[in-house]
Amino acid sequence: MANSVQTIPVSETSPRSLRLPGALSLTFRFCRRKPLGAVGAVIVVSLIVMAAFADRIAPYSYDDSVPGARMKPPNAQFWMGTDNLARDIWSRVVYGARISVTIGFATVALATILAAAIGVSSAYLGGAYDIVIQRIVDAWMSFPALVIVLSLLAALGPGLLNLILALSILGAAGASRVIRGATLSTMQSPYVEAARALGAGHVRVILRHLLPNVTATIIILATIGLGTVILAESALSFLGFGVPPPYPSWGGMLSGSGRSFMYHAPWMALWPSVAISLAVFGFNMLGDALRDVLDPRLRGGGGRPGS
Amino acid sequence: MHTYVLGRLLIAVPSLLIASLIVFTLPRLIPGDVVQLMLVEKAYGKDLEDLRAKLGLDRPIPVQYVDWIGRIARGDLGESLWTRQPVLGELARRMPVTLTLGFMATAVAILIGVPIGILSAVRQDGIFDFLARSAAILGLSIPGFVQAIVVILLPAIWWGWTPLVRFTNLAQNPLAHFLQFVLPAIILGIASAAAIMRLTRGMLLEVLRQDYVRTALAKGLRERVVILKHSLKNAIIPVVTVLGLQVAQIAGGSVIIETIFGLPGMGQFLVEAIVQRDYPVIQGINLLIVVMIVATNLLVDLFYAVIDPRIRY
């Protein structure tokens, strides 16, 4: 009998992959597989650190005028230069991170809760509710983002809270559509049917079975959403509808004084531009990488014609 | 086909109605004291009640809505609170500017996005692919207004050349008229081009792995024919969908680009109206933009039938 059994070569599995991956080795693997995502993560973390410890990192306060240092080019003392009101640009960029991060996270948190509530309920309840809600989402999504936020701000008036409110209502619509889709496909799973057959109530099915399975989708949406919100906030500030001065937001630094003095002091426009671009880049890359890692369905693969 | 178009139009009606409801409701979120502010600042009416009556705010909301829709159906978008000019006339003057910018930006998006996406997919993981993908990431990360600032700033620093801020009309000088759109259109189109490039690449890569592509190659067809004829047709459908979505993106982006480059289009008008809280103008622009976008989505749906014979109506 022993002779008749053919030995089947066991596919090579390195012993490392059998071990339970700790947080460190997970991080290491993420960095190796997604170098751009890791760069994004570094940018995102530095942004958050800058925002949290702005008062420790920045050598000056955001509205400190340094006597006799008006529109100085970058040098050893002010290594990003100073602006037309003799304020240190590096300090203002650091404090600007606080605005971007605060608005970004607050907006995305609000938008995600809204989107999850709309998306999951719309998919779960279905019927007339779903149809009506989805038509409203349709209509909402057919407005260009900037136009609807501007109009909302015109109605609500300027200010940090209204900005967050307007941006999150905007973000929620698109995200709710994706979450609805993910929920619909999860509802087809046998385990949801089994839970129902066992007599689980609606709340239990939604909270214990549906939500945990759309969490990956929600995290990805939130990360990419952060980049979008930071971009939208800087665009609004650029147009003059953002956080009112003297508080520094990157978009605002770029528009008002940054634009009027940019021929004489280009660094005033340069550094906020770099900050906005880096922040958006960081969140986009991290979001992309997270999507590839967390959601295998969306993962791209190799393959060439004929291969 | 005709029944499909009719059906599709009928579906667009509720979307438009809900959108009109949103357009109508937005200015009514104004706290009451703004009416008072308008009274004081602009001396628009005799007293608060008079001004409310003038703005039609003294009647029940549903009556106001029906009345508003009725006037729109007759082509009356109201008049600007600021200049007291009819909104429709002003929009008609500004629309060609935004449409020119939008069409040119869309052309930029397609002409850059699709060919690079194809090349990138065919030479996957090659040096071109790497460069194209890096450029796409840059194009998506650097906001349009930053690109615009850089484009205006660099020539100024290097050669002391600054772009003219004066707008040239079509009648004055047709060539100069179109040339002044080139730079804004490229900047406006780049982000969309990057999105389209990434999608074209992704879709094409998926299609290139299909059996019929292997078959076509195996029977000796040239690679160019297989890619452009067999594969691209199947890969391009989602790209068309996204292009439809990008039109909304471009319409939104035109607000900023028009402001920076001093183009007197609808976007610039919207910013002015919002600064002045000119509600009839805001409503008019929003409504027009929504109608344009709903129409675009309809066209996109119809275009599917043209490029994909499997979709029959």
Q: What do you see in this structure?
A:
- The complex is a heterodimer of chains A (307) and B (313).
- Helices cover 70% and strands 0% of the residues of chain A.
- Chain A is mainly α and 307 residues long.
- In chain A, helix 3 packs across helix 12, helix 5 packs parallel to helix 12 and helix 8 runs antiparallel to helix 10.
- With 313 residues, chain B is mostly helical.
- Chain B has twelve helices and no strands.
- In chain B, helix 1 runs antiparallel to helix 12, helix 5 crosses helix 8 and helix 5 packs antiparallel against helix 10.
- The longest helix of chain B has 39 residues.
- Chain B is globular.
- At the A-B interface, helix 6, helix 7, helix 10, helix 11 and helix 12 of A face helix 1, helix 6, helix 7, helix 8 and helix 9 of B.
Question: Which secondary structure elements does this structure contain, and how are they paired or packed?
Answer:
The complex is a heterodimer of chains A (307) and B (313).
Chain A: H1 15-18, H2 23-33, H3 35-52, H4 54-57, H5 89-125, H6 127-141, H7 145-156, H8 160-187, H9 190-197, H10 202-239, H11 250-260, H12 267-294
Helix pairs in contact in A: 2-3, 3-5, 3-12, 5-6, 5-8, 5-10, 5-12, 6-8, 7-8, 8-10, 9-10, 10-11, 10-12, 11-12
Chain B: H1 2-25, H2 33-42, H3 48-55, H4 61-73, H5 87-122, H6 127-141, H7 144-159, H8 174-208, H9 211-218, H10 223-261, H11 266-275, H12 279-307
Helix pairs in contact in B: 1-12, 5-6, 5-8, 5-10, 6-8, 7-8, 7-10, 8-10, 9-10, 10-11, 10-12, 11-12
